[in-house]
Amino acid sequence: MIHSLFLINASGDIFLEKHWKSVVSRSVCDYFFEAQERASEPENVPPVIPTPHHYLISVLRHRIYFVAVIQSEVPPLFVIEFLHRVVDTFQDYFGVCTEAAIKDNVVVVYELLEEMLDNGFPLATESNILKELIKPPTILRTMVNTITGSTNVGEQLPTGQLSVVPWRRTGVKYTNNEAYFDVVEEIDAIIDKSGSTITAEIQGVIDACVKLTGMPDLTLSFMNPRLLDDVSFHPCVRFKRWEAERILSFIPPDGNFRLLSYHVSSQNLVAIPVYVKHNITFREGSSQGRFDLTLGPKQTMGKVVESVLVSSQLPRGVLNVNLNPSQGTYTFDPVTKLLSWDVGKINPQKLPSLKGTMSLQAGASKPDENPTFNIQFKIQQMAISGLKVNRLDMYGEKYKPFKGIKYMTKAGKFQVRT
Amino acid sequence: MTTMQKLLQLPVNAVNIVKTVQSQVQGQEEAKSPVLTPDSGQQTWYNALPDELRHLRSPSGTGGGGGGDQEERATLEEGGGGGGGSFQTQPLRHDDLKEMLDSNKDSLKLEAMKRIVAMIARGKNASDLFPAVVKNVACKNIEVKKLVYVYLVRYAEEQQDLALLSISTFQRGLKDPNQLIRASALRVLSSIRVTIIVPIMMLAIKEAASDMSPYVRKTAAHAIPKLYSLDPEQKDQLIEVIEKLLADKTTLVAGSVVMAFEEVCPERIDLIHKNYRKLCNLLIDVEEWGQVVIINMLTRYARTQFLNPNINESLLEEGGGGEKTFYASDEDEDEDEEKEKKAEAVTMAKRKPYVMDPDHRLLLRNTKPLLQSRNAAVVMAVAQLYFHLAPKAEIGVIAKALVRLLRSHSEVQYVVLQNVATMTIKRRGMFEPYLKSFYIRSTDPTQIKILKLEVLTNLANETNISTILREFQTYIKSMDKDFVAATIQAIGRCATNIGEVRDTCLNGLVQLLSNRDELVVAESVVVIKKLLQMQPEKHSDIIKHMAKLTDNIQVPMARASILWLIGEYCEHVPKIAPDVLRKMAKSFTNEEDIVKLQIINLAAKLYLTNSKQTKLLTQYVLNLAKYDQNYDIRDRARFIRQLIVPTEKSGALSKYAKKLFLALKPAPVLESPFKDRDHFQLGSLSHLLNAKAGGYQELPDWPEAAPDPSVRNVEVPEWTKCSSREKRKEKKVEKPFYSDSEGESGPTESADSESDSGSGSESGSGSEDSRSGSESDESKEASESEEEEEEEEEDLKKKKKKKNEEKQLKKPVQESESEQSSEEEVRKPERKSKQNKSESESESDEDEESESESSESESEDSEDSEAELKKKKKVAPPKPAFKAAKKENKKEKKEMSLLDLDDFEPAPSPQVTPVNTFLSNSLVTDLEGLSLSDAALMPATIAPSSALKSYELLHRITGEGLSVEYCFSRQPFSPDANMVAVQMHFTNNSTSDTKSLHMEDVKLQSGMRVKEFPEIELLPAGETATAVMGIDFCDSTQAANFQLCTHTRKFFVSIQPPVGELMRPFFMTENEFKKEQGQLMGMNEITEKLTLDVKCRNEHTIVQKVTTAANLSRVPCGSDKECSTPPPPPPPKHPIYRFAGRTVTSSSLVLVTVATKDEGAAQLTVNCEKMVIGTMLVKDILLALTQ
Fold first, then answer.
1. Contacting residues for B203 by C-beta, under 8 A, at least 6 apart
2. What is the pTM assigned to this prediction?
3. CATH of domain A2-148
């Protein structure tokens, strides 16, 4: 399966390599660099690159390319999914997954990679197990380690891998038993020029942070499970129970994990919480363009739309902009032509607007294309689909846990075409 | 330890260190060994190693190494002189690290190891530290140990000999009571790629494979491919281990061992048989990565072991309903027949009428929940499994899951979209509901955009093309020019695939020619050119249009392209082309160079086709070009002048000028680059690259006949292959069976031939039968020996004629003969089952036999059976009578055999019966309309009208023998006038009675209602019944879903009405009609132009087609001039047909007008308050009239 792994940073340096079978020379990455050069944007590098003797499968995360070298037939998604899992693990361990973090923790990285793959085949990818094998570095532990000479590697060998519940370690103990669930929904939408919705979908996830002693068995039920059109589960969820009763029943992993991700069908009407009024015009023959953008709330169910950020790639012909935001700040990068406007909260009484002029290249004809606006926002305390958790019950343990649930709606890929 | 430290201060002395390590490893008092003294000199470890090896292999034999040391010393001294010099040059920069590694403190060692690992990670060479590191392999500190392992695995291959030193540590580890230590020891041991330890590894793997701990067994499974890649010769032994581990029942091992299986022996599919069911059942609990591997392997397995579910279905349908599959169209009849037989055989092979092997079903059922996995690779694996293995109707489930993956990282999207693109070509319908999920966002990376575009193009059809084109329009404005170019190509493809929008697309593309971006223009021109080349009949229109555009379009590229087009197709625009040339000649001097070149080109082409009009113009253009500033243009002009203007000097080439310029350019083909990709297993790397990757296992084609399913039985087989085979035989027996008895009773039968023919025909027809199972009848005929044919020809002719009439009459008379034949009957299947196995043998046997024995009856038999068969095939009507006769036959025979028990071997009567019913199934359906069904008809039923189209509600395969069809009877449903009457027709094809047939669990859209049909208490085997139910569809075409329940099973079914059934006829006069029509104008009126099919241009067919498509009544023609008033005056030239109806639920008027015009042109107008119904109705009627 996976032969070797190379980590390549944005400037094209290979800063980490790991081989699981015989060593593959790093010159194999030259093919990758070639492809990288050909691609105009970093994300346009094809994920699979064939070379005479190997295939390179890469993912780009946090401006680092993770390039896996494989030699024979393997499902490409298998490798891609694994590489993403590696990145997730790094993020979990080091908080961030940057070149610096990886270089600082190179030994832990190596130990992790060693545990995650055996002969190129995934071995332990469950974070609970890995954490038992290799303790994540913390400041305290690093200090203690340097003084006492003890190690990051678990003295006890993991039990989880051998138990019936491979995702949960045994002997978990907490003084405060808590279980928090975050229902986060993202709206993916395309709004056309006239303001009508071309497509809108809701993607939701339930992220959990469970810190419970022992082996709790939880059930989570919804008020309106019918809303969920398509779901994918953490392996801990009992599928049969969901099929039959639409109840999530599971023994949770310890700590943070994604319990469920779901999709609310596009057949349902999706409430669009913001609207955009725009008037962007370029006049033929003039080197000026008008720019007028107003945001307003729509179907927010009385909640405040906050953390609003509008960004847009302006046409290449635009030299500079001179805009006046009624609130927040805007930036424009004359090189990349990227306009971004940090709006903040939308106050329904006083709608935020961004008005002004754009200066175009003198003599250039007016651009054909109109920019597309990408909008980000957040709405707290609300799941836009109307999904509601009914109750959470715990079996198998005696204590009373503290249970919390939080709802949030965010913009996913929310685009407004003009 | 002091000695050791001293040693290390010396220049690297490998041997010594080796020695040290060994002593440390073995934990013996060897530390004081004489070898350790400094005087041993400098030495490469390469020399020393053979001895070391000896130690390792026989540690006990050397008794602490005493004897060996002596020898070793000798070697060392020997090599000392030569090797010394080179070694001194070794870099010493890692001295500090070595020192740290040799210290007593674990913390120092750890620090050193960390630095070394960091070096390895950066790709720095740390191989010179090998000796220093390797001796720490036995370190107590776990982290140090782990890092040493990391180092070892990385460098062992380069320094094989030294690596051997660590091995005894691992060997000890393998015996550790702690399972995890055992596992990790095996892991590292197997990861050291040193050929010499292969036997040790083999031993370790074998031992670990039977370890108590599943975790160790898992590690053993992981070690198998490692060893295999190291030494492929171990394959056989490894397969044994794999076989053993495959039988393991824990989920932990399953994934790893299947992975090993795939790497070592993917061709040994037989190893899976016994474990198949277990793997299917364990699947959901296996870890995600293992699931992927197992699913992929099982896909391949299923392809070799089960029958194609889709082929079966279509063939059975063909057998039952007479529906032709596309296979039937281009293959000759025998093959059809053969397939049919095969399909029948398959059904016969099962006790119940399952299409699918239960194991096949098991796989599909158990993988389905995994579509819900969070792991994209698992979802994709299941999706490809369904795509390759599931019946067509069930594949749809994967679409939703795949669409979900589109929200994942862009790399995942990339792979998924590639696969979706391939799937959409074969099964477009599956992704149609998710069309919008493939809409493109400006933030998508270009490669994703292009793939999405591909999917959108594949999904485009008549209904959604307008939305797709609107979407494409926005894409054309994108800033990403590569993407715009791809969009234009996509539009071109939509235009070629969907005739309706071709003009719209062309117009849109023509507009794009004025785009400022050259890339867009170039791409549009290319696409327009392709489209034009494809439909030459429409050339002139568009070319004329483009010619007009030359006045406005300024982009040189576009002007040039247009000129090329006009030149290329100047014959289609003979009047315009010279005029364009005239205009161009006028502006020649002001044009851009590329335009000038095309002007010259155009002039040349016109000169060749239409020299009369353009001679002067061409001369003029060429003269202008002659003095152009650009030398290219001057060159071209000179060249062309020489070529086209005949002069006495012009060479041979000018003769070919026409050929050169007006050569036919081949029309380009616009098709998806994903067209034939599905021959690669989806989700595979090979599929993604569209090229075979190393180690790719071809997805085998479905087998012709299912291999023995009993191989998967772990316990006592329930029903085995041979039983099924016997049944199959039985079926085939029938043909010779009847002809047999007939032959004997035939007029040419001689008295003494009976005994002879007994043996003769037995063997002969036996082999004959066996062949008929696999071969076509034609070939049978062909192979018939000629002599026989000559002899028997006459008789045969007679017999063929008589056979049908005589059949029934003859039987009762000829008791003894038929007795005998029945006896033969019974014996034949047995023989056949034997002979079937060696088909080729029996064939040759048969030849011999027929030559030597050539008994009359034998040849007769076979000929007769053929004749009979042919008749069956060709003449459908006589079939029922035929069959009935057969049935009769059988009964009689049973009776007869009762009389003469001795001759009658245990007759397979219970087996014969199902066979009979199977055959008569189709018979019963054939007879439905006749007397048979009368008895079964319920009082409420309405006589079926032949004009009504019936739809399938439940196929007899899915319904396990119960098949249900329904039709819209178009009668008022008496209990509730707002309901549409649906007449259901039940047929019980199974062998057992179906009881209490009723419906349950009706799921409806709001507002819809259903009046259930009365429960049918009993539907005996082979019988049919009819019932009527009412559905109020609320004037929508939403399906009514409900469950059809029998006493044992429930089937989900749904009835979706065609829009034409949602109305009932309404009588009105022409004046009323016009009045009503006047009130339903504007939005309520939908008009479509159409060209009537040649076949339906007369009144009768138009009326018939419209009334079939929709339940409407014709509005009689009144005093209008258009109407066809009685005889004398000829029917009006352009009659108008009007139809009226009201929707069932809301009684809204539906008015349809078909106004005919010249040459089959017509205009269809539908006026209806309900716009949705109107639009759909227009579509339906349009379809009915144009096809």
1. none
2. 0.63
3. 3.30.450.60
